[in-house]
Design brief:
Distance between the termini: 29 Å
Strand content: under 5%
Helix content: over 70%
Number of helices: 9
Shape: elongated
Length: 266
């Protein structure tokens, strides 16, 4: 029964993920409306009116077109953020556990210092150099997320290197690269993939939230958070403007959560 539940959850997760990615990647190929083109004579049209499948916003812009382009930006930015956090975080964790000594202590002090800072504060400090820019937004989030990859990879690498299997391989004269490729990475990569899944959901929610409170990306940039922020004053008259980007975030986050399973513990 448990296996069937897991299978159904994973199938649902893959279905939602593929649907979201297909709309995001291939949507611009068949959409005919410009996401920034305004038509002040067609303001707040309901879904299905005038050739607009999801209606128009308060500037007469096509909601579906802006939703697809906004989803592409939000999802792409979250994936880039996690990649820039996971790769250096994992590599530094492996190096720290392998070398030990002053390098391990220095990196440990650095991560402890960064963990003492609230994540939102760190993002805001980085964004102060170029407010409203995608580059500073993803750099700030990457600096926040890499710490967890470092701590988990360092802990797991230490555990792997302390096993009798590694000791036996070293006594037989195998090179460190063999130990890394055959013992450390097979044990580490599944946990890193699991951790990356949760980091992606954290990143896309953070990007949307910061943009929604006018701290992240700024209008007229089509991003899921800015779409929600722009539509809030018109929620009573056009609730679909808020519900559409919220549904995309829900679908993407739910799909990653269903595929990731339980969160790894350090």
């Amino acid at each position: 029964m448990a296996n069937n539940s897991i299978t159904v959850a994973r199938l649902l997760g893959w279905g939602l993920l593929l649907l979201t990615l297909c709309i995001t990647c291939f949507g611009p190929l068949w959409l005919t409306h410009d996401p920034i083109s305004q038509d002040l004579l067609a303001i707040l049209l309901p879904p299905g009116s005038g050739g607009h499948w999801l209606g128009t916003d308060h500037y007469g812009r096509d909601v579906l077109s802006r939703l697809v382009h906004g989803s592409r930006l939000s999802i792409g930015l979250s994936l880039l953020t996690v990649a820039c956090a996971a790769v250096p975080g994992m590599l530094l964790g492996i190096v720290a556990a392998w070398r030990g000594g002053w390098l391990d202590r220095s990196l440990g002090y650095l991560t402890d210092t960064m963990m003492a800072l609230p994540g939102l504060l760190l993002v805001l400090l980085v964004m102060a150099f170029a407010p409203g820019q995608a580059l500073t937004l993803f750099l700030g989030l990457s600096l926040t997320l890499w710490v967890e990859f470092f701590r988990v990879s360092r802990s797991m690498t230490r555990t792997s290197l302390a096993t009798s299997q590694v000791e036996a391989v070293r006594r037989l004269g195998f090179r460190p690269l063999y130990v890394l490729r055959r013992i450390v990475l097979p044990h580490l990569l599944p946990q890193m993939a699991l951790l990356a899944g949760f980091a992606i959901t954290t990143a896309i929610v953070a990007i949307a939230t910061l943009s929604a409170i006018s701290v992240g990306l700024q209008p007229p940039t089509a991003e899921l958070g800015t779409l929600i922020a722009e539509a809030m004053p018109y929620y009573a008259d056009a609730p679909w403007l808020v519900l559409a980007p919220s549904l995309v975030i829900l679908m993407f986050v739910l799909s990653i959560q269903l595929l990731s399973g339980e969160r790894p513990h350090e």
